[in-house]
Amino acid sequence: MSRRAPPGARTGAAGSGSTSSSALAAINTEDMCPVCKTIRYLNKDMEFLINPECYHSMCSNCVNRLFNDGPNQCPYAGCHRTLRRKGFRSAFFGDLAVEREVDIRRRVAAVFNQAEDDFETLRDYNNYLQMVEDLTFDLVSGTDAQRRAAEATLQQWEAEHKADIERNRKAGREADEQSRRRLAAEREAARLRRIEALREAEEEKRERARSREEELDSLAHGEAGAAGGAQRVQLKKRGQAVASRAVEAAVKTDVAAADVGRLSIRGLKEKKKAPPPEGPYDPFGGLDFVPSRYKLRPELTHPGIEKYKVDPAHITGGYNFDEYTARAMFEAFAGLGVFIEDEKEVGIGLSAGDVATMSAGIAAVGDNKMELA
Amino acid sequence: MAVSPLVAPTSDAAQPSQFARPTSSPFKRQASAVPSSNGNGTPRYPPHARPPAPDAAAVALDPIEQLNEDEKRKYVKGKKLGEGTYANVYLGHVRHDPATLVAIKKIKVQQQYLDGMAPDAVRELKYLRELCHPNIISLLSVFSSKDQNLNLVLEYLPLGDLEMLIRDVDRVRYGAGDIKAWMGMLARAVWFCHDNHVLHRDIKPNNLLIAADGDVKLADFGLARSFADPGRRMTANVITRWYRPPELLFGARHYGGAVDVWSVGMVFAELIIRAPFLAGNTEVEQIALICKQIGTPTEDCWPGVSQLREYTVPADVVPVWGKEAYMGRFGAVGPDGVDLLVRTVALDPKKRITAREMLEHRWWRTDPKPTRKEDLPRKSAGGEEKMGADLKRRNGTVDSDSNNRGAKVARKLDFGQAK
Lengths: 373, 419
Known about the structure:
The structure holds 2 protein chains of 2 kinds.
Chain A: H1 13-16, H2 22-31, E1 48-49, E2 58-59, H3 60-67, E3 72-73, E4 82-83, H4 96-111, H5 122-141, H6 144-160, H7 162-221, H8 225-262, H9 303-309, H10 312-317, H11 321-333, H12 340-349, H13 358-372
Antiparallel strand pairs in A: 1-2, 3-4
Chain B: H1 11-14, H2 63-73, E1 75-83, E2 87-94, E3 97-107, H3 119-130, E4 139-145, E5 149-155, H4 162-167, H5 176-195, E6 198-199, E7 208-210, E8 216-218, E9 225-226, H6 246-249, H7 258-273, H8 283-293, H9 323-330, H10 334-344, H11 355-360, H12 383-392, H13 401-418
Antiparallel strand pairs in B: 1-2, 2-3, 3-5, 4-5, 6-9, 7-8
Helix pairs in contact in B: 5-7, 7-10, 9-10
């Protein structure tokens, strides 16, 4: 569907055009009906309407004239869409491309209205959002083929998941309702607070006037100023008490208002699984490094290390010859039973994606390694 | 684009080897500090060789660069979690899955070691690549970025470290079951290291990071090494002082897994009393504290000890305390727990319990049961920065006195941060 720059578009074309024709261009793009060529000068109340079928805009007079007698073809040259009177409305956005995109998005959102709670993991949800966004993009600015494909997908999905969509819509409406109610409650609370505050202020003012009068009176009667001061202090205190009470009340209403919102149980997931039965604690964490191919005997030795076994520096420092023999034996047997070809095959199966599950695997692999040794 | 000194294994056959390492010995590939990709014959620059000048502007990357580039592209580096003299730590995520977070530890080029990689970085790499265990921080990948910077991709542990929990007396409460669970994980990690012939040599609450699911993970292998052959001398200058065993304080050059076990015992004691058990400001003071709190090492309880190079103890000999002496202070873990503690802090390394024996101890089977890791106490805030702070630290102690004071100050600052 080929669209011209809509008359309402404030794309800056007027500004960027040559200076001599800029005034004319402004009139042209903004205020002339592309169908009947009427300009605003002639019709002050000219209103442009569009039809979401093709988003070609025309003035309301043209719409009345052309479509009052039932469906008719779009008057734009080359646009052969059949439009109805009913479909026309005034555009919300000046840029009709935006208008169209918003319409499409609204439509897609009405169909793909799953919430995050419907998904197992955040990742799934994100993937879903990505898919929806891709589809929307195809619809908005894809080629014809892409648009058709996307349209087909959309319709198919709508047909297949009618019940789900309806349910989600209802849920969404409920949530909207909730938030609306909460907002209303908050606004109401705020209004009450304001009234209260006004009343307080009024009260205070009156109080102040009265105390001043009293003071003047007392001065006139020549009484000691101390009494008046004390009273004033008292009055002030009372004012504070009233104020603090008001704050408390406001907080309470706030809490109550929040409670209204909290009543909803949406998103509440009862996913408590019974913990797996715990076995006895295994200090070794399931690992065992006892060599399977040979046995370590404590008296194992080698002529090369005999002299160190009697060396006081080694003995006193806690050098452990068993550790040495264990390592020597381990290294001697290390390569046996390892077949690089097999490992390669195993290796291909592992990908970088396994990083996440790695720690779980480590124990098993570590075990494996030692068994091979 | 310079040639990387590193060959990070990528894709197909090389890929699994970094996670699941079914190949025989963990020491198979130890000869080169840099793990090659399964020995498939890719040429490799020795770590100390400077790469050729980057003249060709990487028109065609050679295979090694390509591998490195691929590996680098797998991760997206995010905000900086911490900066230290030794390394910067960044938060990152896997490129194709933003939900999988990683910590990228970018090791700074150090002036001292311009011609190669810093030894602590090499150590960390070498051993972390070999050890795969749920209670040991896993190294997911290694790549070099521009300027030959070494980047270690580590698993992301958001909940801080054990020290944070120990220090926050006001807000974190834990009981015997929790201590048992943490100690169980620590002992398991140490046992795993030792059974794979690796000495950690820097065990302390600071290096015990906590994963999102509550697992304790042993981190910071910058001082690790494999068990030495008989006759090979090792440095005695390892392990943070408070956690250093007497044989190292006395300058022993031939030692074994017992040094790590002492540190585990110190961590155990610290978990119970929620303060460092033996916090000496100097090595002399540390020895004095050990003599006072545990007993003076003498020829009676530790034959040959007086022959050690730096053997000096305070004049007044304190007999080695029995189990009863500990009951008052450490009774919270029950008599069996105290028994285990006493065995881990035996002065003579030969008499000290081994990591395996620790796990076989009856304490694990007595009540209360170790808390399930999901139910362990945790702190939600500040963990991220804490991991940044923990990873960027220079490993262990480097022992000139001034350095130590610096380390101590940093420590203090850390406490403030944790609160």
